[in-house]
């Protein structure tokens, strides 16, 4: 697959703005392990190979266990995720897919049983950011692995 265009070079200020959002979210209230799960799950849903590749490598560098990475797509059936992680994954799916009629109160209340209001807000911004990255990367056919060296992802030892 060949990349259609380099959106980072063509729209540098907009790219920088999205990068700033992504960095700010990482300083928020949600732990890195959940941010990794969220990035991977949204990327799976959106069919974004570039982001799935990138965030799987990041999660590996952050110490995530390979078996948990394999189970993310089937998190509901897996016993490898905590209630807090399950809440984050459920919220990720709902915000990413945005069901007709909005997100049900029942899901929001279930998520609020695991996350504070601040955490739900921060998590939602993370989901918004990864969805934006997914959409740009899919639209412009970003090539998986093409930014590994620039982002230090070669340290993951995955090729």
Automatic annotation (TrEMBL):
Domain of life: Bacteria
One Pfam family matching this protein: CMD
Record-given protein name: Carboxymuconolactone decarboxylase family protein
Family annotation (NCBIfam families): ahpD_dom
SUPFAM superfamilies: AhpD-like (SSF69118)
InterPro entries, per the entry: AhpD-like (IPR029032), AhpD_core (IPR004675), CMD-like (IPR003779)
Domain Carboxymuconolactone decarboxylase-like residue range list: 12-94
């Amino acid at each position: 697959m060949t990349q259609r265009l380099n959106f980072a070079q063509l729209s540098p200020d907009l790219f920088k703005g999205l990068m700033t959002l992504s960095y700010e979210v990482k300083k928020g209230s949600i732990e890195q392990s959940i941010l990794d799960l969220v990035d991977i799950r949204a990327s799976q849903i959106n069919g974004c190979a570039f982001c799935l590749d990138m965030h799987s490598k990041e999660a590996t560098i952050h110490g995530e266990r390979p078996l948990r990475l394999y189970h993310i797509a089937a998190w509901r059936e897996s016993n490898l995720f905590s209630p807090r992680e399950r809440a984050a994954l459920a919220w990720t799916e709902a915000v990413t897919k945005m069901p007709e009629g909005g997100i049900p109160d029942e899901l929001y209340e279930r998520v609020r049983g695991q996350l504070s209001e601040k955490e739900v807000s921060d998590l939602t911004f993370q989901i918004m950011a990864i969805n934006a990255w997914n959409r740009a990367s899919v639209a412009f056919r970003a090539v998986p692995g093409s930014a590994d060296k620039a982002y230090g992802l070669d340290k993951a030892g995955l090729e």
